[in-house]
Amino acid sequence: MTFTIPIENGDAVKIAEAESQRTLYPYVTGTSIVAIKYKDGVLMASDMGGSYGSTLRYKNIERMKAIGKHSLLGASGEISDFQEILRYLDELTLNDNMWDDGNSLGPKEIHNYLTRVMYNRRNKFNPLWNTLVLGGVKNGKSYLGMVSMIGVSFEDDHVATGFGNHLARPILRDEWHADLSFEDGVKLLEKCMRVLLYRDRSAINKLQIAKITEEGVTVSQPYSLKTFWEFSSFHNPTASAEGSW
Amino acid sequence: MFRNQYDTDVTTWSPTGRLFQVEYAMEAVKQGSAAIGLRSRSHVVLACVNKAQSELSSHQRKIFKVDDHIGVAIAGLTADGRVLSRYMRSESINHSFTYESPLPVGRLVVHLADKAQVCTQRSWKRPYGVGLLVGGLDESGAHLYYNCPSGNYFEYQAFAIGSRSQAAKTYLERRFESFGDSSREDLIKDAILAVRETLQGETLKSSLCTVAILGVDEPFHFLDQEAIQKVIDTFEKVPEEEEGEDEAEAGAAQPAEQGGAGAGDVAPMEM
């Protein structure tokens, strides 16, 4: 957008500077997050990769963080915007703790706060380039919700972001049921993450699974999934498509 | 209280460490007609005496809904009370919008108290001339708070403010230990009985009082006149014995307050 800047009007110069600092594209991005409700709370899985365009540049990024006593936030998309969101939430939870009055912000409140933040940024054409997954347990009730970079927000029993929307969701729709045990929940998430590992080029084989229950948040140590590359169709991949590679 | 050379400005301390303007503001609360609040673990009841300027006019509204889970009863300058109620409604709805969750009443009263404190420390402002009985819910159950023009707030099991509130307080002091486990109906009955104490012998009719209730599974709402009259009927049937004792007690406790609280002395803006 071009326009002449009158020298006398200081504000116009400021506006021009602000324009060029709007979010236009993401730089360092995280790929999918997959999360499900289970018997004791919520399980969330993410890999530890940060891509710089098509380069898998960072391989030790934690994309899931505990928020306050009752919530767990996972993010895909721009990593620096995720860090900014963590700063906002840090301030929010700090102020909440300072009240010291027996009341605390639960996952529902945090989810709605994030929805307001994301939607307001979208309205200013300066979005935080993330899709966020917010899970938590408070007073025995599990909560799982998602907010996109344009402020689309909803709750569900199982959610997935990015490529997970296309690859993990169908698996979850078929195989999720209420009151999954911890082991079954982890198996289900690993199934989804394995498919993503095979098919999402920005996924890496180093993942973490986070669990949130009434007692609190635990994020597992990073580990790898076993993969199998000896499928017969991998041996001669171009057999059925002449000229491709 | 007598006029003195330290009472012109709210920002002037007296040598004995008092802010007279703030204390005068608290006097305004005492001149207003009575408001009473009591709570159990799960419910809060607010009640007030309906006073009208003249027979021709309607009575002033003294109880306001702030949100489904918070209500406030005021005594003193009702105009100030209305403005503060609007502030409370605004805070409550902004919180609900951002967090999709009700504002804990304990936090609202702190905001209110901080707002009142500002007026005690600016030379171009005056303290709010209204006392607020705020009843509401938060995660730990039902609460009743009293917000003072001084910027102080206190939590109560039961309290009464305004003119002739001492009679109601005496009644409540006798009973308050049982309020925690009271049923909803008993709580309402006690509130109306406390209102009756402030009427000093005038027969209690449902048109003379307004009662509102809120609870853990009950959004804030006013009781209609029939419901109030029904409760009155349950105890007005035995008028002689009860009224006899209460009047004697109330008479003894009243002399100090009666000074400025006679009907003719009430300024038009105070209700």
UniProtKB/TrEMBL annotation, chain A:
Keyword tags: Cytoplasm, Nucleus, Proteasome
| SUPFAM superfamilies for the chain | N-terminal nucleophile aminohydrolases (Ntn hydrolases)
Q: What is its main location?
A: cytoplasm
The protein's matches in Pfam families, at most eight in alphabetical order, are given as: Proteasome
| One Gene Ontology cellular component annotation held by this UniProt entry | proteasome complex
For whether the record's keyword set contains Zinc, the answer is: no
Q: Where in the cell is it found?
A: Cytoplasm; Nucleus
Checking InterPro entries in the record gives:
Ntn_hydrolases_N, Proteasome_alpha, Proteasome_beta4, Proteasome_bsu_CS, Proteasome_sua/b, Proteasome_suB-type
CDD domains from the entry?
proteasome_beta_type_4
- According to its UniProt entry, what is the function of this protein? Non-catalytic component of the proteasome.
Family note: Belongs to the peptidase T1B family.
What interactions and quaternary structure are annotated? Component of the 20S core complex of the 26S proteasome. The 26S proteasome is composed of a core protease (CP), known as the 20S proteasome, capped at one or both ends by the 19S regulatory particle (RP/PA700). The 20S proteasome core is composed of 28 subunits that are arranged in four stacked rings, resulting in a barrel-shaped structure. The two end rings are each formed by seven alpha subunits, and the two central rings are each formed by seven beta subunits. The catalytic chamber with the active sites is on the inside of the barrel.
| This protein's name | Proteasome subunit beta
Task: Provide the species name.
Answer: Camelina sativa
Q: What is the lineage of its organism?
A: Eukaryota, Viridiplantae, Streptophyta, Embryophyta, Tracheophyta
As recorded in Swiss-Prot or TrEMBL, the protein's gene is named: LOC104701056
TrEMBL record, chain B:
Complex formation: Component of the 20S core complex of the 26S proteasome. The 26S proteasome is composed of a core protease (CP), known as the 20S proteasome, capped at one or both ends by the 19S regulatory particle (RP/PA700). The 20S proteasome core is composed of 28 subunits that are arranged in four stacked rings, resulting in a barrel-shaped structure. The two end rings are each formed by seven alpha subunits, and the two central rings are each formed by seven beta subunits. The catalytic chamber with the active sites is on the inside of the barrel.
SUPFAM superfamilies in UniProt: N-terminal nucleophile aminohydrolases (Ntn hydrolases) (SSF56235)
Q: Which family does it belong to?
A: Belongs to the peptidase T1A family.
Gene3D superfamilies named among the record's database cross-references: Glutamine Phosphoribosylpyrophosphate, subunit 1, domain 1
Under the heading SMART domains, the entry gives:
Proteasome_A_N (SM00948)
Q: Where is the Proteasome alpha-type subunits domain?
A: 6-28
Tell me the classification of the organism that encodes this protein.
Eukaryota, Viridiplantae, Streptophyta, Embryophyta, Tracheophyta
Instruction: Give the region (Disordered) as residue ranges.
Output: 238-271
Acidic residues bias locations: 239-249
The organism encoding this protein is Camelina sativa (False flax)
- Please provide an example of a Pfam family that matches this protein in its UniProt record: Proteasome_A_N
The reply on keyword Acyltransferase is no
Q: Identify the InterPro entries for this entry.
A: Ntn_hydrolases_N, Proteasome_alpha, Proteasome_alpha-type, Proteasome_alpha1, Proteasome_asu_N, Proteasome_sua/b
- Cell compartments where the protein resides: Cytoplasm; Nucleus
* Function noted in UniProt: The proteasome is a multicatalytic proteinase complex which is characterized by its ability to cleave peptides with Arg, Phe, Tyr, Leu, and Glu adjacent to the leaving group at neutral or slightly basic pH.
Write down what this protein is called: Proteasome subunit alpha type
Q: Which UniProt keywords apply?
A: Cytoplasm, Nucleus, Proteasome
